[in-house]
Amino acid sequence: MDKNFIVSETNRLDKFLALQIDASRNQIEQLIKKEYVKVDGKIVSKTGLKLKENQIVNVHFPEAEFNTIKDELFIRKSLEDKNIEIIYEDDDILVINKPYNLTVHDAPSVKDATLVDWLKLNNISLSTLSGEERHGIVHRLDKGTSGVMVVAKTNQAHVGLSKQLEEKTMGRYYLAITDMPLKDNIIITKPIGRNSNNRLKMSIEENGRFAKSAFHKIALSDKENFELIAAKLYTGRTHQIRVHLSSINRHILGDNLYGFKGELNKINRFYLHAYYLYLTHPITNKQMSFKANLPNDMDEFLNTNFQKENINDKLNENNIVSSFNTFI
């Protein structure tokens, strides 16, 4: 699909396109760098190109692609113990419940198959605006975090969902089990940056990026030493929930990277789960929401250590959403 725009006044190419199409700055940069943009019929690749009045800018929106995959045998073996549940699917979006211990997309340090590999293996049409390694990926979850994610199947859907992320009209609520109860419901606003002593970690840094999280108490364990909490993010920093909890001396069970000290032999990952996702369908504009059931290990831990029958109602997604409205 191609669209033409006429320049009405002098402007930079990237800034001009930002005014014409609903796309993030990164997506516009990718369109230009991949030579999908022409000015007066000539392909351009410089994002800061100065445009003159009455020039014609043509933008080609590539169709979503079925991409080649890594060695199929390796991928199948790497994914054989990971159950990726499809919660919802139509022609434009796919909503899944990602298992823990699965990386979303490739990076230099990633050795195993990724969620993107699984998507390609299953011949799911994917958007292409985020680059080869991130086809379809609008937002992500850490490798150790389980839960609900939406994947864009078309470029038009990708642009629409990315816009919602920027405008914060799409978001998620998380569940976590901590090693100590919160004193009260709390909002934490502390900047987050890369830890200078450990590049695998993030930390509270004076010159870090603004980050805001809200935490709500749900239930205490039988011995009152653990607590089930809900979290809502207002920014999307790496490891944000884990860093903010650590900053008040609370740690997610199993999260030894951020200070949990316990019987690690009994917990093979940290108990953080993206539970509930809300969005507007990028094509139909329908308001939609999706819940990802708790993984077996977290559910079993709650059954063993909490009065589960007393918290089932509190885990109703409507109750979780409304609970944040009472103190935010």
How does this structure look, described?
The chain is 23% helix and 26% strand. The protein has helices at residues 13-20, 25-33, 72-79, 115-121, 155-167, 240-246, 296-305, 308-311, 317-325; strands at 2-6, 11-12, 37-39, 42-43, 50-51, 56-60, 85-89, 93-98, 146-152, 171-178, 186-189, 192-194, 202-204, 212-220, 227-233, 272-280, 287-291. Strands 7, 8, 9, 10, 11, 14, 15, 16 and 17 form a 9-stranded mixed sheet that branches. It has a 4-stranded antiparallel sheet with strand order 1-6-3-4. The radius of gyration is 22 Å and the shape is globular. The model has no long low-confidence stretch (mean pLDDT 87).
Keywords:
single chain; 328 residues; alpha+beta; 9-stranded mixed beta sheet; 4-stranded antiparallel beta sheet; 9 helices; 17 strands; globular; RNA-binding; PsdUridine_synth_cat_dom_sf; PsdUridine_synth_RsuA/RluA; EC 5.4.99.-; RNA binding
